Amino acid sequence: MSGRKHTVLKIAYRELGRMTSRPLYVLSMVIAPLFCYIFFTTLMKEGLPQDLPAGVVDADNSSVSRNILRNLDAYQQTEFIRQYSNFGEARQAMQRGEIYGFFYIPEGLEHDASNQNQPLISIYTNGSYLIPSSLLYRDMKTMATMASAGVGREVLLARGAGMDQAMGFLQPIQIDMHALGNPMLNYSVYLSNTLLPAVLALMVLMITCFSIHTELKDGTMREWMELADGNVLKAVSGKLLPQTLLFVLMAVIYLILLYGYLEFPLENGIWPMLLAAVMLILASQGFAVFIAAAIPSLRWSLSLCTLWGVLSIPICGFSFPVMGMPAPLRAMSWLFPLRHYFLIYVDQALNGIPLIYSAWYYVAFLGFMLMPLLDIWLLKKTAYKYTYLL
Amino acid sequence: MMKSIRNLLSVCGQELRKNISDTGVMVFFLIVPLLYPLLYAYLYSGEVVREVPVVAVDQDRSAISREFLRKADATPDLHIIQYCSDMEEARELMRRHKSYGVILVPDDFSSLLVAGHQATVATYCDMSGLLYYKALLSGATMVSLDMNRDIQIERLAGLTREQLKVQTMPVENEYITMFNPANGFQGFLIPAVLILIIQQTMVLGVCMMSGTEYELRKKGKLFLGREYKDPLVVLFGKSLAYILVYALMSVYLLMLVPHLFHMPQLANRATLTAFMVPFLLACVFFSIFLSFFVRDRESGFLLFVFVSVPMIFMSGISWPASNMPGAWRFLAQLFPSTHGINGFCRIIGNGALLGDVRKEYMLLWVLAGIYFLCSLSAFLLFYRSSHIPGIEFIRERRNRRREIMSQRLDVVGDKIKTVRAEIREDVRERRDRNRNQSNG
Q1: Helix A232-255 to helix A378-385 angle, to the nearest 10 degrees?
Q2: Same domain? B80 vs B212
Q3: Is the pLDDT of residue B337 over 90?
Q4: Which residues of A touch B46 (CB under 8 A)?
């Protein structure tokens, strides 16, 4: 028993030497994830974008329209930066990217309103920028409705109705939205919680695959195998041990950043998420070893691991839900470790439901970890049979 | 002058040949740009999320509450999968990811409405995806607006419908999303991804090529022709090769792919072409400059793939650029992708003309200039430095060739000598024999 441990530690020590011999490892294992941690959490530190630039076209230029305009700037998320003289000018400003949307008040608004012709105010937003466009729409829709209701309310109050009665008449049914787990609709909560582990998992996939195959390239693979007395399992576990420790440290850093420093929702405490983060790293390593053993070529196995890491970001469904994807991709999404992490995060951190509901995702992680057992023996063949060809 | 042009073309040809023979590079220059956009477009082919599964809890059980729920189910956004008796049952379905929201009609709903007060419908939404929230909000709001109008009409019996509308809604409003009519994911994300693919695959491919060169040099196996003597010629030759490859890829990515997936295509051809020139130049010199920091084939993978994720955010396509911290906004200016994405999205999505994207267009020229100077100075520096030999190998190859030639000459010379000697011997022998015969 002690002999086995000794071998693994010997290889781990050797790997530590390899990792410190070139700056590439530190750059991609520590600097790259740290950069992304800082980037994403500071990028969206406002939570919801404030003061989005918008414009106004007042074709009517009457006292009524000016009155509407005066009340527009009361919203936090929208800032009316300019008034344009006609529709074309506002459209061009949108094409230049100066504004994300604009209000169009048609000619004859005052005249139509006083003649009870029900004039039409139009809201235009630039759909090429989805998030600003949606947020602007929400604000501007409310503004337009309020402006209109304001006029109606005045009429009713003047007729002697109470405020409660007036609202009961103007809006008999109102909708009360409850955003569970993220009541402020914080974008950082919504994106950082998945993007930080996604970048880390990408790095785990690439480094694991790279560090195995680079032995073949350097011509040291045989030496590595012989150090483990020809036992592939020992050889690989010794090699991955220092990497695992470093990656777990990086995972702990993002957990502290997200749930300790930024105080993002964490309903069931840190333990389920810590377990998920550690298992995400181990699962990614397992998957990468499986690929590295199956494909005895550095460029192809590394390409595949990279593809898997990058593709896992859209396919895990945090921005566009998996249920909206075509059926083959829906089925494929289970083959990405990040998908399981995302579902655990939703259950455990965001919604805080009992751990048992997430059990299957943890089991899936176990499956990824065991994947190398299927083909790891091929690595030995690779070590003795193949040589690296440029 | 003519000679440098011939050298330049020769370098370009050799680089192209190297691209084609290296499968690793071809993955980036060909396979990824060809297939990745298709994969992405397929991923988002649904554009928007329809019929989000929700459950209803009807505590009121009146005709009007049933009408509300029936109408909610009929909206394109929502699909009521089940009517639950209480919130606990509804919550259980959410926990099992069967539903993503709850519509709760409280028990005082109809009585409040009858009394002429305001009644509230509560909705609870799973926040694992913002699109669920959007669907639930817009679905429920649509139904409430619709029913509100009917209720008002009932209450004010006696007035005409038109009079009523004016009473309740003196000013009507409408909503138009310009340029992305489906307001979907494909129309918003794919154009940005296409531009990023051009830049990133170019960076990765160029880095892999230069990494390979570096490795070969270190092993002493790099043989370059005489035309590789002049750094300026090499720089231009390489750039020309990459631009040729990417001019083709750009036509595919920016004209064919949007067409294949029915994305917004308001692009003015001339504008698009004019805009791509500085973008490709900036990308090429950016890639060549970065490739100097790469010491082997795979470093590019590990160092530059992950950057794609922050880069797409830096472009401001998702989180608006106007709300980024200053430091990130500045950093974003350094990448061709930032200006490329902003310009291209507005050209193809909004039908912007060159004048409308003047800022991005000028900045791309500036970036192209900066990275050209950077890579030129790097080339001059590295070609002179001793630890990355360039000229040395040319000289070495020439010497080796001479050596081989002289060896061959020696061999041939020796052979000629022996043959001559043999002939001489032979002639002498015959002469001797003849002399003997005539004597005898």
Answers
A1: 110
A2: no
A3: yes
A4: 320, 324-326
